[in-house]
Specification:
single chain; alpha+beta; 8-stranded mixed β-sheet; 6-stranded mixed β-sheet; 20 strands; 36% helix
Length: 400
């Protein structure tokens, strides 16, 4: 099969996944149009953890170096009992030899998106169109038409393929009629940012720390100059009450007593566990949150979406530039969907379930098990190969 003339791909969504995919296709001289419903790159509080293999994958494009300039290296992460401080510390240096970046990097999703967005300016074959929302998709044997609305006016874009990287409420997925099955966790997470130096108050704190407290759980994630903490309403307390100034101070005093902590930002969000029934419908494909949603515990969602982008870009380039059979695109689903279902969603669910444990004796048992893992280099490396997403990528690469 000969490659099509002037290959063109439409990507819905200018988030981390869509922008990454645009970059990877752009360097292959494929024309890309990115349609973004909002009027700019999102600055919302979202993901912030980048795992070692993600940094490896982005390094050849100069993205990792830019992220290291703006982010914070996290050589360890931990699970901790609060207020006692008993903890299991996971040292990522054991991954040396398996990755060029044996650490996590804390860098806001919005910063990552801006870094990639800036890199795209060097490619005349990439166009990003803001304030343009996908409304419908029509396919033929050799093309796909995307009907979109911009400032109330209809527009039609034509391409060889369209990729839905437009998040949990994906308009592309809905236009294709692909079911997103699963459920929503009962609790609401309250994400808070503050300049308060938790690392000066809690001995031995890692830059990424997941904590049990007597009546619940919280997490602390450090970024350059700021800490992010995930909080949860108390039993019997409404989310609105927990989000109030008084409610937040009460929850924050569970972490550091007798102190008022200035809150910069606050955002409530619900956590989903969902998976698209399929990733491909003809000339339309899904990636990232449009295809899979998971608990943020462990920081696997955004990374998994970026891994989707790399996998899909390789196959699209083979089809569009090298004349590979279109059936190659089915391998994208065979490689990435099981990883999302059995590695990302399940691992994130296990992480969440562990941190939701309330029984003190069971917590101590879980912590002892984790400490036995961190004290055994073989067990630790095996554990971190999985939780750092290296094992899932290897599994995908081995799938035909």
């Amino acid at each position: 099969m000969s490659p099509p003339r002037n290959p063109h791909v439409i990507i819905a969504g200018a988030g981390p996944v869509g922008l990454t995919l645009a970059l990877l296709l752009g360097v292959k001289d494929i024309s890309v149009t990115v349609l973004e419903a909002e009027d700019k790159i999102s600055e919302e509080l979202r993901a912030s953890t980048f795992h070692p293999p993600t940094l490896d994958m982005l390094a050849p494009y100069g993205i990792t170096d830019r992220m290291l300039e703006q982010g914070l290296v996290c050589p360890t992460w931990q699970i901790r009992l609060h207020p006692s401080g008993a903890r299991a510390v996971f040292d990522l240096s054991v991954l040396k030899g398996e990755t060029d970046h044996p650490y996590r990097l804390q860098c806001e999703q919005s910063k990552y998106a801006q870094i990639v967005f800036a890199a795209l300016a060097a490619f005349p074959n990439i166009e990003i169109v803001f304030s343009t929302a996908v409304a419908a998709i029509r396919q033929s044997a050799d093309a796909v038409e995307v009907e979109a609305t911009s400032h109330g006016e209809p527009h039609v874009f034509t391409a060889s393929y369209v990729i839905g990287a437009d998040g949990a409420r994906s308009a592309v997925r809905k236009a294709l009629g692909i079911e997103l099955s699963g459920d929503i966790y009962p609790e609401t997470t309250i994400l808070v940012t503050t300049l308060f130096p938790f690392h000066e108050q809690l001995e031995g704190l890692s830059n990424v720390t997941y904590c049990w407290k007597p009546d619940g759980t919280f997490s602390l994630l450090r970024l350059p100059g700021v800490w992010r903490t995930s909080l949860y309403a108390r039993d019997g307390q409404s989310v609105e009450e927990a989000l109030s100034d008084e409610g937040l101070q009460s929850l924050l005093r569970d972490i550091v007593p007798d102190r008022d902590i200035d809150v910069l930002e606050r955002r409530p969000y619900r956590i989903h566990r969902r998976l698209a029934a399929k990733y491909r419908e003809g000339r339309a494909l899904l990636a990232g949150d449009a295809a899979h949603l998971n608990s943020p515990s462990g920081g696997m969602g955004m990374n998994g979406g970026i891994h989707d982008a790399f996998n899909l870009a390789e196959k699209l380039a083979a089809v569009l530039c090298e004349g590979a059979d279109e059936a190659l695109l089915d391998r994208y689903e065979r490689q990435r969907r099981p990883v999302a279902e059995e590695e990302i969603i399940q691992q994130a669910h296990r992480n969440r379930t562990r941190m939701q444990e309330r029984d003190p004796a069971r917590r101590r048992e879980l912590l002892s098990d984790l400490q036995r893992t961190t004290d055994d280099l073989v067990k630790l490396k095996t554990y971190l190969l999985k939780t750092s997403m290296i094992e899932g990528l290897r599994r995908a690469a081995a799938t035909e």
